[in-house]
Automatic annotation (TrEMBL), chains A, B, C, D, E, F:
This is Carboxymuconolactone decarboxylase. It holds the Pfam family CMD. SUPFAM superfamilies: AhpD-like. It comes from the Bacteria. GO terms for molecular function: peroxiredoxin activity.
Length: 127, 127, 127, 127, 127, 127
C-alpha cells in the first residue's frame, strides 16, 4: 500500500483547515506558479501542520496573529480567519486575539484585521 | 474601601505575568519617561490583560508571536518568553509557536526568536 | 457635577481632530468589536492626545509620519491626513512631511501616502 | 553643447526601464507633489541606475525582491515587474525570484507578489 | 565664483544637524562604500534638507518618528535624536514624540527608541 | 543504492553555499530546536536552492536583498554576505546591490547592511 506523499497530506490538511478558500489560492497559482502551490502544501500544510505539541486551533491563533502583525496581508487573513473558525476558534476569540495585539502592534493593523474579520463573519452568516 | 487604580491593577498583573523582568523595564523608564511606564501598566496590563475570553496563557502565545513577527524586539521577547513560561506555556510549546511562524514570517525572524528563547531557557535552568 | 469619563473626553477629541471620518471608524466597530472602539477613544484620544508638551498639529505630523512608515495603512492615512488638515497642517506641509520621509523609508511608501493625500485634497475641495 | 540635466537623464532611463507605466506615476504626481517626481527621476533613475557594476537586469531583480519584501507595494510591483520584463528578465525568472524569497520572507508576501505578476503577465499578452 | 556642489552643501548641513556623529557615519563608509556616503550627503542633506516649507526642527521630528516606526534602526536613532536636540527639539519633546507613536506602532518599538534616547541624554549631560 | 534524503541534499548545499558559518547556525539549533534546523535544510537548501532557472549567485543576490529589506537580520546577513561571496558575487557587487536598495528601502537599512558587509570583508581578508 502506498504511503501518502507530502503534497497529498498537505492538500488533505488544507481542505480540513482552510476549506475551499484555501484550495482556491492553490488553484489560482496553477497558471502562473504551480510549484509555489506545491511548496506551500508540502512545507506549510504537511511538514508544519502535521507536527504535534500544538493543536490546529492553537496554530491558527498563531497564524492570524502573525498575519495581523505583518500587515498588508488582508487576503491571507480572510483565508485564515475562516480557517480559525473552521478548527474551533470562536468569533469572540478572533476579536479578542486582535485586541491583544493592540499594545504590541498598534491600532492601525488591528483595525485592518478587525474589518477583514467583520466581512468574514458576515459572509459566513449568509451561507 | 478604596477601589484599585488602573496602575495598581496593571502593576499586580505585570508582576504575576512578567515577574521581576517586566518590573525592571518599568523601573528603567523612571528617569526618562515615567509616564510611558504608567501608560503601559494601565493600557496593556490593566485594560487589555484584565479582559476575559482568552486566558493569560493564550495572551502570551499571541504576544510572543507578535513580537517574533515584528522583528527587532529581542528585549521584549526576552521578557515575554519568560512571561509565557510563567503562566504555563512549556519550553516545547514556545519552540513550536516559533516554528509555526516559519511559513508566514520566514526563517530569519524565527531564528532570532529561537536564539532569544535558547538564552531564556538556559538562564532559568541556572536559577 | 460629574467628571467626564475617559471615553467622553476621547470622543470629544476624536470629533475635534478626525471629525466625522474618525467617528465612522468607531461606529463601524460597533457590530464587531465595540470594546476596541472604546479602547481607542480612551487610550489614543483621551490618555495620549490630552497630554501636553506637543500640540495637536505636532501630534498629527507624527501620526501621519508613522502611518506612512508602517505601510499598508491607507485607510488610517486617509483619516489622519484629514485630521492633520483639520488641526492646522497645510496641504503643502503634508506633502513636505512625506517628502522628508523619502531618504529614511524609501519612495514606494512615500508614493502610497502621496496618492492618499491627493484623493483627500480633491475630496475636501469638492465639499 | 549642453550637458543633460539629472532630470533629463532620469526621465530617459525611466522610459527605457519602466516605460509608459513609470511615466504615468511621475505624471500623476504633477498636481500634488511635482518635486517628488523630480527627486525620483534624479536620485533613482539618474544617480542610482546610471551607476555601473550591476546591469539593469540585475538592478530590477533587486528592485522587485525589495518590493516583495517590503509588502504593501502592489502598485510599485506592477511597474517594476513590467520593468524587469522590459530589460530582459523572463516571466519564469520573475516567478523564481519570488519563490526564492519564500524561506526568508514567508509565503503571504510571496503570494501577493505572484498575483501581481499573474496580472502583469496577462495584460502583456493581450497587448 | 564657484557655486557649491551638492556634496558640499550636504556636508555643511550634516555638520550643522547631526554634528560629529553624522560625520563619523560618512567617514566609516570611506573604506567600504564611499559613494553611498556621497549619495546620502547629496540626496538627504542637500536635496531634501535644503527644501523649505518645514524647518529643521520639524524635519528631525519627522525623522526620529520614522526611525522609531521602522524598527531595527537604533544606530540611526542615536544620530538623529542628537540631531533633533541640536536643532532645538527638547528632551521632553523627544520623549513625547515617542509616546505619541504608541497607539500607532505599539509599545515595543517605542521602548526601544526611549532607551536609545535615555543613553543619548546621559551622554550629552556628561560632555 | 540509496537516494539522498532532503536533509542530506540540504546539508550538502548549505556547506557549499554558506560554508561553516551556515553549519554553525544549524548546530546552534541542536540543543533548542533541532527540528527547525531540519526544516531549514529541507525547505530552503534542498527544495528551493535545488530548483533551476536561477543560479546560486542570483539566488544569493535575492537573499541578501531580502535580508537588507526586512531589517533586524544582521546575523543572517553576515552568513549570506559570506554565502554570496562564496558563490561568486564580488565585494563590489555586494555594495552595489545594497546601494540599489536605497531608493526603495531608505538609507537606514542600507547602512545597517553595509556595516555588516564591512565586517565580513575585513574578516575574510584576515583569514
Amino acid at each position: 500500500m502506498d504511503k501518502k506523499t507530502r503534497v497529498e497530506i498537505g492538500l488533505e490538511n488544507l481542505l480540513k483547515i482552510d476549506g475551499e478558500d484555501g484550495k482556491k489560492v492553490i488553484d489560482a497559482l496553477e497558471g502562473v506558479a504551480p510549484d509555489l502551490g506545491k511548496l506551500i502544501l508540502e512545507f506549510t500544510f504537511a511538514d508544519v501542520y502535521e507536527r504535534g505539541v500544538l493543536d490546529w486551533k492553537q496554530r491558527e491563533i498563531i497564524t492570524i496573529t502573525s498575519l495581523l502583525t505583518l500587515g498588508g496581508t488582508e487576503k491571507q487573513l480572510d483565508v485564515h480567519i475562516n480557517a480559525a473558525l473552521n478548527v474551533g476558534v470562536t468569533e469572540e476569540e478572533v476579536v479578542e486575539i486582535f485586541i491583544q495585539c493592540s499594545p504590541y502592534v498598534g491600532f492601525p493593523r488591528v483595525l485592518n484585521a478587525i474589518f477583514v474579520a467583520k466581512e468574514v463573519f458576515a459572509t459566513r452568516k449568509k451561507s
